Amino acid sequence: MSEEIKNTVNRTEKSANAAKIIIAVALALLIAAAAFTAGFFTGNCAVSDDARSLDWLLKTIEENYYFYDDFDADGAGEDSLKSIADKLDIYSEYYTAEEYAAEQNDNRGRKSGVGISYGYLSGVSGVCDDGGIFLYSVVGNSPAYRAGLVAGDVLVSGTYGGTTTQFTDKAAFAEFMEKVGDNESFTLSTKESDFTVARQEYKASYTFMATCESAWEFVGTADGGLTLGENLAKKKDLPEDTAYVSLSQFYGTAAEELGILFDKFEETGKSKLILDLRNNGGGYVSVMQSISGYFTAGIDGARSAGYAEYKNGRRQVFDIKKQGRGLISADTDVYVLTNSGTASASEALIGVLVSYGVLDYKNIFVSDFSKEYLDMQGDGAKTARTYGKGIMQSTFVNDWTGEAVKLTTAKIFWPNGKCIHGSGLSAADGCTVVPAKWSVTKDDAELGAVLDIISKR
User: Fold this and answer.
1) Helices 285-296, 345-355: crossing angle, 10 deg rounding
2) How far apart are CA 59 and CA 103, in angstroms?
3) Residues 6 or more apart from 404 whose CB is under 8 A from it?
4) Separation of alpha carbons 179 and 88, rounded Å
5) Which of 384, 379, 381 shows the shortest CA–CA distance to 427?
6) Which of 180, 226, 179 shows the shortest CA–CA distance to 202?
7) pTM of the model
8) Residues 146-198: pLDDT tens digits?
9) How many CA atoms, within 13 angstroms, populate the side-chain half-sphere of residue 447?
C-alpha cells in the first residue's frame, strides 16, 4: 500500500473515531437532559395544584403586603386560600380564576343583573315610613335605571309569572329575585308606581349632569356602548348659574363620560359646579388621574395627582393625565358633596383639587347623619367626615392558574403631602358640615341645604 493511501486510511479512521466520540457525548447529554426533565416534571407533578397556589399566595403576601409585619403567617398552610386573605386587612381579597375574570369584567363597566344595591328598612320616618326594600343606589344605564327607579325608592312588592310577592323582609325579596330567569320581564312596585325590569347584561354609566334647564345622562347603544342623552325628567332644581354633576365610581368609562359632560358644562356658561361624590367608594387610580386633568389645565406646577409609598420605601408618583377637552375654567367655583361613604380615589381627587387651589376646604360639604341612621348602622358608623382611606390596593395574578389576590401595597399621599388615612376630611380641616337624614333620600333635601348655604356666601 502506498504511503499516500495509508495516510488517507488513517485520517478516515481518526474521523470515524472522532464522530463516534461526538455521538456518544451527545447521546450522554440527551440522556442526562431527559433524566433531568423527567425528574423536574415528576417532582412538580408530585406537588399538588393546591400546594403550588398556597406557595404562590404566601410569597406574594410576603413580598408585597404593606402590613406584612402584622400578618400571622404561622399555620397559614392549614387554611384555605380565601381564609388566608381574610386574615389580612378588609381591603385585601383572594379570587379564583373565575371570580377574577368576573371582577375584571365588572370594573370595566360590563355588568349583569338589575343594577341596584338595597337593604330592608322596617320603617323610618321621612325615609321609608311603612317599611320595604330601600334602594341605596341604582347603577346608571342598568335595567332598573332605564325603568325609572332611583336611589331612595322603596319597593313594597314584585310580580312575576302572574304571582305577586309582598316584600315583608329582605329574605322575601331575595327569594322573589331567585325565581326570575335572565332576560325575563317582571315588575317591581313602590307604593306609587310599577316598574317593568329584567335581569340583563348592560354597560354601566357612572355620571349624570343637570342644570335648571336640562339634564344629561349616558344611555346604552345597540353595539353595547354608551351615548349621551338628554333627560328632562331627571333635572335638579338648581340656581341659574349652577350645574350639578354626580360621579358614582372611578371605573369603566367614568373619565370619558365626565369629559363629555364638562364640555356641556362649558357650553351652558354656568359659573358654579357642584360635584357629588357622596357614597363614591373610589376605584382605579388611573381614572382619578384622568379626571384630575379636567380641573388642573393651565395651573403651573400641576403635574402630580399624588404619590404612593410602598413598604420598602419606594415612592411612585401618579402623574395628572392632561386632557384635550372638558377643561374646567379657573374662574369656575367648584363645590364637592361628600359623606362617610366617600373614600379612596374620591378622597384622592379632592386632594388634587385642594392641593392646586381649585377647591377650598369650606366648599367641601360633609354629611352629618341623623341618630336614627347611625343607630341602624351600628358600631363603627362614621358621620361628619369622609371615610378616610389613604391606602392603595394592587392585584397580583398567578399566570399558571389565573387566580389572583388583591393586597394593600402602599399608603397614598396628596400632591401636598397630606395623607387622610384613618381620619378622612371633617370640620377640623375646615369642611362644612350639613345635616342629613339618611345616606340617600329621594328628595335629596341635603342638596337643597347645600344650595342654601352657597347662596348666602
Assistant:
1) 30
2) 23
3) 94, 95, 97, 100, 395, 396, 397, 398
4) 36
5) 384
6) 226
7) 0.86
8) 999 999 999 999 999 999 999 999 999 999 999 999 999 999 999 999 999 99
9) 21
